[in-house]
């Protein structure tokens, strides 16, 4: 069965965005881009909330076509165009979309049906609201947390309204020269 892996940048105090969704505190560089590119190339499905999907859709399909496109922009643009996208949204119309499935309701049944299909891991990018919904329904199988060396003090937390403990097994730790550390966890491994 396929796994759902949440791929998130997080502050040391557990926030995935500032109070108004700010992400200007996230550290990214070529070392992180190369590492992430290798990791996500194994995935064939990306899962987003509506806001993150619309942000991605406004940039990535044509990012590689820009005259000054970076190596990361070219590589991620190509990956984004071929990967199947799943969007959790009650308001987004499901028409006119390329290689995209909209899940408006019945989250657990819809996600479990996708997990039963053949393919690689399903990667959740950012999308705090969607991630909260997936966590609350025990649909996340792993976390790739990129812990940024900053304490925000306030913002949008990764974990909210958790009813039961979530047991995690640390699979990998990868430090970057920028001070970011990736923590790779498996959920409920026992």
UniProtKB/TrEMBL annotation:
<dbReference type="Pfam" id="PF01872">
    <property type="entry name" value="RibD_C"/>
</dbReference>
<dbReference type="GO" id="GO:0009231">
    <property type="term" value="P:riboflavin biosynthetic process"/>
</dbReference>
<dbReference type="InterPro" id="IPR002734">
    <property type="entry name" value="RibDG_C"/>
</dbReference>
<dbReference type="InterPro" id="IPR050765">
    <property type="entry name" value="Riboflavin_Biosynth_HTPR"/>
</dbReference>
<feature type="domain" description="Bacterial bifunctional deaminase-reductase C-terminal">
    <location>
        <begin position="2"/>
        <end position="180"/>
    </location>
</feature>
<protein>
    <submittedName>
        <fullName>Dihydrofolate reductase family protein</fullName>
    </submittedName>
</protein>
<dbReference type="GO" id="GO:0008703">
    <property type="term" value="F:5-amino-6-(5-phosphoribosylamino)uracil reductase activity"/>
</dbReference>
<dbReference type="InterPro" id="IPR024072">
    <property type="entry name" value="DHFR-like_dom_sf"/>
</dbReference>
């Amino acid at each position: 069965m396929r796994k759902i892996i949440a791929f998130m940048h997080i502050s040391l105090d557990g926030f995935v965005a500032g109070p108004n969704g700010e992400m200007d505190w996230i550290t990214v560089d070529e070392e992180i881009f190369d590492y992430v590119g290798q990791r996500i190339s194994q995935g064939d499905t990306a899962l987003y909330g509506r806001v993150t999907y619309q942000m991605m859709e406004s940039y990535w399909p044509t990012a590689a076509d820009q005259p000054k496109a970076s190596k990361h922009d070219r590589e991620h643009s190509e990956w984004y165009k071929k990967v199947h996208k799943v969007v959790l949204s009650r308001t987004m119309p499901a028409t006119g979309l390329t290689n995209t499935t909209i899940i408006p309701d019945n989250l657990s049944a819809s996600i479990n049906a996708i997990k039963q299909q053949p393919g690689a891991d399903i990667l959740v990018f950012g999308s705090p609201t969607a991630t909260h919904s997936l966590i609350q329904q025990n649909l996340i199988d792993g976390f790739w947390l990129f812990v940024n060396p900053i304490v925000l003090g306030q913002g949008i937390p990764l974990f909210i309204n958790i009813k039961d403990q979530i047991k995690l097994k640390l699979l990998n730790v990868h430090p970057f020269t920028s001070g970011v550390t990736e923590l790779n966890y498996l959920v409920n491994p026992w």
